[in-house]
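Reminder: ligand-aware prediction takes two inputs, not one.
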Amino acid sequence: MANLYPWQHEQWRSLMLRKRQASMPHALLLAGAAGLGKQDFALTLVAAMLCLQPDQHGVACGQCKNCALLLVNNHPDFYLLCSEGDDKPIKVDQVRYLTQFLLTTPQIASLKIAVVYQADSMNLAAANALLKTLEEPEGNSLLILISNKPGMLLATIRSRCQLVPFTSTDSARQWLAAQLPQFNTDILLAISDGGPLSALAMAEQLPILEQTIGNLVALASHRLSLSAAISACQKIPLQNLLAWSIHLVSDIIKLHVTQTERFVVLRMDLSTLKKLAFAANLTSLYNYLDQLLALQKQLLSKVNVNQQLLLERTLYLWQLCWMEMKSCP
Ligand SMILES: [Zn+2]
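Here is what comes back for the chain with zinc ion:
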């Protein structure tokens, strides 16, 4: 099953069994963190459903008429719906088009298939329009929804779809270690929220991450001035700096509270981290964590964001957490 990642095999086998038993649900919800290859899985599934001569595992042949049309993005019985931009919602007109598509008779395949990327980005009107289709499914159609945040979908939509969950398993960990033998893949996985493909993409950022954590630790230990820290972090995307800072603060809190390094994610300078945790004022750190989450929200909202001010505030508040600390770890 070369088209599938190792952590997707179980989901594949289960769906292929449903296909052989002619009991494939009308709607699937592929759900799980970003970076688990859900879109690739959905497209492999679409090909398998349309293919005239799939192999023993159910994977499409890549040769038949249906496969050939799909490969050139020209299959009349397949429709892919996604938002018109990263920050834009899926609108009701787009969903209406999709439902019309599903209602018509298949042209050359035995069923019609639609895939919706980032289904959680549907606005309310779009979600309600989709709900109608889910309530009255057509006999020969399959709708595949994909979501990194299934909790943001209407509960009524979730309950009408067969859930296909994706998680980062041991096989995902092993796969990533084989792709990046020279890297600490545990750190990469932890800062990518567990998605092995996100972790792979994050690999080239690792030296910058290590340098940034070094600078933040130096700022906390009074070994680096605020202005030098601001200048060192100038070129780092702010969303990365905030996400990494959240990991760092959480690590120090965990070290302080549990007195064990077992749960620490950023392990590149554990001895200094332990000294900081020992000297830390827990209330200040929790306050800072709240402030970081608020800054992250402000950045995501894209409303009146002054990137330079946000960077300076992030580092100033971090320095403030350590003002009372007398000795330099
Ligand atoms: Zn085929």
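Residues 212 and 223 are 14 Å apart (CA to CA). The two ends are 52 Å apart (CA to CA). We will return to this case in the review session.
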